[in-house]
Model the fold of this input.
Amino acid sequence: MKIGFAGLGVMGGPMARHLVEAGHQVRGFNRSADKARAWASSTGGLFAATVAEAADGADLFILCVGNDDDVREVVMQSLPDLAPAAVIVDHTTTSARIARELAELAAGQGFAFIDAPVSGGQAGAENGQLSVMAGGDADALARAEPALMAYSRAVKHMGPSGSGQLTKMVNQIAIAGVVQGLAEAVHFAEVAGLDTDAVYDAVSKGAAQSWQMDNRWKTMAEGRFDFGFAVDWMRKDLGLVLDEAKANGARLELTTLIDQYYAEVQSMGGSRWDTSSLAARLQNRRN
Done:
């Protein structure tokens, strides 16, 4: 396929690389032109100086940018140059509202817009093992899915426009609760004087096991947080979650509290720390 890709950061860059490796013609744009040039040079993809250049004649236009405003701006700039009946796939985590808005806008001009946030983090993007949760027209998603599988292990259609973003909110609610529980478990083990490695061996094969435990227990215990999904990004996502909950009436007491805990981590200088840095907040209070 002829593909345009906007947003070549820690997630988008590897995703676009996988598309090139799968044999697609990919023209990549990034707000920082130097980053786009470096991506093109290292992957064999094509450099695009503007969104319009990336979108020119594209059958599939993919974006992975920052927030609602960024998505709206990029999509608006891409529409005049896309191939007829092109599919737009947005991997940015945004509000469900903007997804519905842009789906309606795109449909009015003969295009399809799919909101398709991902889970799996930077490692999932690098290894081509992302989980995609998609909202929008099922037929349009089916046309795009073979390309999306270049960097995904699963693509799931969740329903009409906005459903992908709502599903990502569910994902972030669940992760926030698990990470806080894990942080408290590590903290308790340390305060109780237990060997945290031995505790992990004892509990990780039972009902407490989770991806977060397998991948973050040891680094939490060691106080290492300079990697992974940043606290600033998690607070952005939880802000979307809490705004949606206000609108739909969902009760998210624990999520609200954990968002406040992440604000404390930011005040400690941990804005770019991994989300597992909730453990640092507990260690800081102990000291």
In short: The longest strand covers residues 152-159. The longest helix spans residues 163-191. Residues 2-159 form a domain with the Rossmann fold fold (CATH 3.40.50.720). The chain is about 55% helix and 15% strand.
